Amino acid sequence: MTTAVTVWEDFDVPAHARGGQVTLNLYDHLAAYAPKRPGAYLRISSDRFGLEAGVDRQLEDAEDSRSRLRWGAFAKIYRENDTSAFKKRKVVKPDGAIDWMVLRPEFRQLLADLAHGVIDGVIFYDLDRLVRQPRDLEDLIDIVEYVKRPVTGATGGRMNLINDSDRHMARMMCVMALKSSEDTARRVARQHLSAAQNGIAQGRIAYGWVRKGERKGQLVPDETDVVIRIFQDIMSGESAYSIAKAFNAEGIKPPAARTWSSTMIAKMLRNPRYAGMASYSGKHRVQAATAGDGWSLVLFDDEGRPLLGTWEPIVAPKLWSQVQFEWQRRRQKAGIKPGESGTAPANRYLLSGILRCHKCHRGLVGHKYKQRKSGKIILNYMCPPSDRGGCGGTAIAAPTADSAVEEAMNAFLRKQLQTSKTGLDQSADAIAALQARPDQELARKSELIHRRTEGSLHEANLAEEDYFTMLAALNRKISTFRESIATLEGAPPSMAAPEELITHWAGGSLLQRRAILKRYLHSITVHPPLPPSEVDRSALVKERLAPRWKTAAEIAA
Question: Which end of the chain is more exposed for a tag (fewer CB within 10 A), N or C?
Answer without folding.
Answer: N
